[in-house]
């Protein structure tokens, strides 16, 4: 089975801790991960190594949705997240693995994302576009330093 891989790098004007938490807080994840035109819903999140998560993206235009879930393989606060994902749709077979590494830099945090095992039926350009939109939303969520 042929699969695709995408790699992204971004520097955010945020802290590594805040970015890390945005991946593991269900409300935050539902806010930033769905690309433009989609609404996210987290159904389950057990944010520990060996824990599982499940979520759904719903297309606001068509109402169609796709659900997926996986397992947390590695969680190092403020540094690394590694998790699997598998679509419920049998037309999107296989298991993906995403690795996110965070490194504090003088102006914020450098974030590298590698997503492997993307089903071949999904155009790699669509993955890059979706991730770029999601990372823009992640920046909008994590960069503001709001003091109460």
From TrEMBL:
InterPro entries for this protein: ASHA1/2-like_C (IPR013538), START-like_dom_sf (IPR023393)
Look up the domain of life of the source: Bacteria
Domain Activator of Hsp90 ATPase homologue 1/2-like C-terminal residue range list: 13-142
Q: Which SUPFAM superfamilies match?
A: Bet v1-like
User: Which Pfam families does the annotation name?
Assistant: AHSA1 (PF08327)
Q: Which family does it belong to?
A: Belongs to the AHA1 family.
Q: What is this protein called?
A: Polyketide cyclase
Organism annotation: Duganella alba
